[in-house]
Design a protein that fits this description.
- This protein is mostly beta strands.
- Among the domains are: 144-230, Immunoglobulins (Immunoglobulin-like, Sandwich), CATH 2.60.40.10; 237-323, Sandwich (Immunoglobulin-like), CATH 2.60.40.10.
- Helices cover 6% and strands 39% of the residues.
- The N and C termini lie far apart (188 Å).
Length: 326
């Protein structure tokens, strides 16, 4: 009877304690679940867990078997996971010359080779500069054409002077320069033509000409030149040797000699004036039609010059005549 009462008393006492909250039941174990991504709560590092630093943050070593709590969900034991941390942006300062001085003796920039010692009594070699090729003129095309020329006005007249050049292999004859003149609007205002001074234009030898038109000096803005010639001639031409020549105020005087084997007649003496660049600035000639020069004989000449100031650097005189067959 007493045992029953004691047991009943114990049961009643236990019920009273439970009712007052002094004894709590054991908590329930949570179920495994996925790691919550993007959590801002910093996980608690278990004691003795080695940590590995990576570029993306801090990652637990694969040997770790202790679960890491993230948020309210646990990671199952034995599953290594990466613990995300909130991203942190740290500005990296650019290095400057004054931030970190280079240690003494550190090479800077491109490496410099050490100079080679020169034995005593031997002069160091000096590199020989490569020769610079002399500038060459643009070769002329093959044919007959006006090599260089210039136009100028004198009073109401307009002149074009220049020289015809033959870049072929055989001489041509009767070279004629034809000019068309235009105003500033492109309208043709005149035309003219003139024979070259010498009847025969030899290869690589300039043949001067002068062309003149009247009363168009103020209207001419530009001109165009063309050349015509003959490939054959019934007359045989020869050059005469120019012994000397001098330019005066109104004439060019000098002496020529026939060094050919035949007498020469219908002689023409021409002078061409050039500037320092070799451009024709003026020409003049004279026809000695009544003169016949025997082989070895000399003949003086005088070429009249037109009025006006003439500025030139050098001049060239040449003479040509017909072979006299009778």
């Amino acid at each position: 009877m007493r045992q029953y009462q004691f047991g009943s008393f114990f049961v009643i006492l236990l019920l009273m304690l439970l009712a007052s909250g002094c004894v709590m039941p054991a908590p329930a174990q949570p179920q495994p679940g996925a790691v919550v991504q993007g959590s801002t709560a910093a996980p608690t590092e278990p004691a003795g867990t080695p940590m590995v630093a990576t570029a993306g943050g801090v990652t637990a070593s694969a040997a770790t078997a202790t679960p890491v709590s993230v948020g309210i969900v646990d990671v199952p034991t034995g599953t290594p996971t990466q613990t995300p941390l909130p991203p942190t942006h740290t500005a990296t300062p650019l290095s400057t010359a004054s931030d970190t001085p280079s240690p003494p003796g550190s090479p800077t920039g491109s490496p410099t080779s050490a100079p080679t010692a020169v034995p005593t009594g031997v002069s160091p070699s000096t590199p020989t500069p490569l020769p610079i090729p002399a500038p060459t003129k643009t070769p002329y095309p093959t044919g007959i054409f006006v090599a260089n020329h210039r136009g100028f006005s004198n009073g109401s007249s307009y002149f074009v002077v220049g020289e015809v050049l033959n870049t072929g292999r055989v001489p041509v004859f009767g070279a004629k320069v034809i000019a068309n003149f235009y105003d500033s609007a492109g309208k043709q205002v005149g035309a003219g033509q003139a024979l070259a001074s010498l009847a025969m234009t030899e290869p690589e030898v300039g043949n001067p000409f002068k062309l003149k038109i009247e009363n168009l000096a103020s209207a001419v803005s530009r001109y165009e030149l063309t050349v015509t010639w003959e490939d054959v001639s019934l007359i045989e031409f020869r050059h005469l040797t120019v012994l000397d020549g001098a330019v005066g105020e109104a004439e060019v005087v000098g002496k020529i000699r026939n060094d050919q084997e035949s007498p020469l007649t219908s002689i023409v003496v021409a002078v061409t004036f050039y500037d320092a660049a070799g451009v024709v600035v003026d020409t003049a000639d004279i026809f000695l039609g009544g003169q016949t020069v025997a082989p070895g004989e000399s003949l003086p000449f005088s070429i009249p010059l037109t009025s006006g100031e003439r500025v030139y650097d050098h001049f060239w005189i040449e003479a040509q005549g017909n072979v006299n067959l009778f």
